[in-house]
């Protein structure tokens, strides 16, 4: 049997918690691998943590300043010479969502096709880990450098992922403090014709804020999956929140729907997180007609606004935990600082921008603890995919 097929068959056939053991055994048998490890990115995207039977028992690998971290950041394989041979760090990613790094040490210099082959195994492993999370906590535990709060556990489970990429767009999002997030959240979904992006900023803190946000996101998903227009989605979610909280709690929300064939954007601003657009080397805040947050009053009507995305546009969304944050001497992180942050991160891929902006925000605070949770989402619009077939049923 072809060795590639043999390795891929093992990945498909082993139990979810034995993925790494099966891959390690297969690579040793068919490629003579000296060592094989899987490093998972932690929730803060600052560390890579080794998958082991007992979690929290090995030292993490920093993303900054390491060969493995470089592979994770650039999403390109990196190599180093070690005593046992050549060590490769291969990105483990699925559809643009970066999960970690596969580390493979081979006994001697290899021809390039071997590394390409191993890179395909890393991609296959990403898909298997993604599916395995349904059935085992092993890889979820490996992502943690400390215990999550209950609210954070609820919020991370609610997310669609932390990055997504297609020919038309690339998305990346991050929440901080990663291990104690509570009210901020984002959601997205793409079909053949549309990309839906939702930014949510629920009031309150702790588990009560997480419960509020969970209800809002699931109400919006339920409405979106019913195939109704964007304004009606907001109105149904508004009714669900009001029915539960009677106006005592509300959720600031921004809903956007991109037409993947044209770049036309429908938007509903319900007291939303803020949006910045980077176009042609210049940054500007995109202002909407701000409407009532979801759940404020019964039977609120919402109005859709229209924007146009151009190829090369970058959109950066931030919650109130980012803007107006005070520094050690009371200076606010305002519009000017946000504009500068968007420009400073212009050369980064969309998946890396949120972490970079939040790191700068942490420096503005002087390294102290955050008074509020924060969300940053970055969307790069590349333009319609010439190879896409948009001749599909309406609403798909």
Automatic annotation (TrEMBL):
EC number(s) from the headed UniProt entry: 3.1.3.16
Highest taxon above the source species: Bacteria
Leading EC class: hydrolase
Record SUPFAM superfamilies: PP2C-like (SSF81606)
Residue ranges occupied by any PPM-type phosphatase domain in the UniProt entry: 166-381
Keyword list, A-Z: Hydrolase
InterPro entries (alphabetical): Bact_Sigma-Reg, PPM-type-like_dom_sf, PPM-type_phosphatase-like_dom
Residues making up the signal peptide according to the UniProt record: none
Molecular function per GO: protein serine/threonine phosphatase activity
UniProt KW Amino-acid biosynthesis keyword: no
Name of the protein: PP2C family protein-serine/threonine phosphatase
């Amino acid at each position: 049997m072809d060795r590639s097929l043999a390795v891929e068959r093992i990945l498909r056939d082993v139990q979810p918690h034995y993925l790494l053991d099966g891959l390690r055994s297969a690579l040793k048998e068919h490629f003579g691998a000296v060592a094989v490890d899987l490093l998972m990115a932690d929730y803060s995207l600052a560390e890579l943590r080794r998958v082991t039977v007992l979690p929290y028992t090995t030292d993490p690998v920093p993303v900054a300043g390491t060969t493995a971290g470089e592979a994770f950041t650039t999403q390109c394989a990196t190599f180093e010479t070690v005593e046992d041979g050549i060590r490769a760090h291969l990105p483990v990613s699925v559809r643009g969502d970066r999960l970690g790094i596969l580390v493979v040490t081979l006994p001697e210099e290899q021809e390039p096709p071997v590394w390409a082959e191993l890179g395909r195994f890393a991609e296959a492993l990403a898909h298997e880990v993604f599916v395995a999370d349904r059935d085992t906590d092993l890889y979820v535990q490996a992502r943690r450098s400390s215990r999550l709060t209950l609210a954070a556990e609820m919020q991370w489970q609610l997310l669609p992922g932390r990055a997504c990429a297609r020919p038309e767009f690339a998305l990346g999002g991050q929440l901080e403090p990663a291990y104690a997030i509570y009210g901020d959240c984002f959601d997205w979904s793409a079909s053949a014709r549309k990309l839906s992006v939702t930014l949510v900023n629920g009031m309150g803190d702790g588990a009560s804020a997480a419960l509020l946000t969970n209800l809002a996101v699931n109400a919006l998903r339920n409405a979106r999956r019913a195939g109704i227009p964007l304004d009606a989605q907001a109105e149904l979610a508004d009714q669900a929140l009001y029915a539960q909280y009677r106006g005592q709690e509300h959720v600031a929300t921004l809903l956007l729907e991109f037409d993947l064939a044209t770049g036309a954007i429908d938007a509903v601003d319900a007291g939303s997180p803020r949006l910045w657009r980077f176009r042609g080397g210049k940054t500007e805040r995109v202002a909407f007609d701000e409407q009532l947050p979801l759940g404020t009053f019964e039977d609120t009507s919402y109005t859709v606004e229209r924007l146009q995305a151009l190829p090369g546009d970058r959109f950066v969304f931030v919650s109130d935990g980012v803007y107006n944050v005070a520094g050690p001497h009371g200076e606010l992180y305002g519009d000017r600082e946000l504009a500068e942050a968007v420009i400073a991160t212009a050369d980064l891929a969309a998946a890396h921008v949120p972490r970079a902006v939040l790191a700068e925000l942490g420096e503005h605070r002087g390294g102290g603890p955050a008074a509020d949770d924060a969300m940053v989402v970055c969307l790069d619009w590349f333009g319609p995919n010439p190879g896409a077939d948009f001749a599909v049923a309406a609403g798909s």
